[in-house]
């Protein structure tokens, strides 16, 4: 998939290890290494200023430890409290939005459920949103 040059931008990548990581609005792509234990990126509570913005997450290691992206503040990810990544290079892009009733939630916009065979910069994960581009 190609995009016009004006649509492309450098994506801010944050690399995190095991434990809880508080995702901030400055993060765009969070690369999670769960080789030392479960990695839990915790999403911020959705505010009006965040609506329409997206965050992408990817599991970098080949261990059986989960990366569990977790919602907070009563928000949900497509009706659940978390979204788990359990294979190397598996990824997800989440969009902050409101449903028809005005309830804020996280919506799964793109996934890489089969994983890839290279590094994220090798094009193994495609993210779609108004903030991110093909990696």
Characterise the protein shown here.
- With 135 residues, the chain is mainly beta.
- The protein contains no helices and nine strands.
- It has one domain (11-122): Jelly Rolls (Sandwich), CATH 2.60.120.
- The protein is globular and about 40 Å long.
- The protein starts with 12 loop residues before the first strand and ends in a 23-residue tail after the last strand.
Number of helices: 0
CATH architecture: Sandwich
Point out poorly predicted stretches. 1-7, 115-135
Rg (CA only)? 14 Å
Topology readout:
Layout: E1 13-16, E2 19-22, E3 29-32, E4 39-42, E5 54-59, E6 67-70, E7 82-85, E8 91-98, E9 104-112
Looking at this protein, list some descriptive labels:
35% strand, 135 residues, disordered N terminus, mainly beta, Jelly Rolls, five-stranded mixed beta sheet
Provide a compact summary of the structure.
This protein has strands spanning 13-16, 19-22, 29-32, 39-42, 54-59, 67-70, 82-85, 91-98, 104-112. It has 135 residues and is mainly β.
């Amino acid at each position: 998939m190609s995009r016009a040059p004006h649509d492309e931008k450098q994506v801010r990548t944050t690399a995190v290890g095991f434990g809880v990581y508080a995702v901030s609005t400055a993060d765009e792509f969070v690369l999670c290494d769960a080789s030392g234990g479960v990695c839990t990126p915790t999403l911020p509570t959705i505010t009006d200023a965040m609506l329409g913005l997206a965050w992408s997450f990817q599991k970098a290691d080949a261990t059986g430890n989960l990366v569990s992206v977790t919602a907070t503040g009563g928000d949900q990810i497509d009706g659940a409290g978390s979204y788990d990544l359990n294979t190397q290079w598996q990824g997800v892009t989440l969009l902050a939005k409101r449903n028809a009733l005005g309830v804020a939630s996280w919506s799964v916009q793109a996934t890489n459920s089969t994983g890839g065979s290279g590094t994220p910069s090798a094009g193994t994960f495609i993210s779609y949103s108004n903030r991110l581009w093909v990696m």
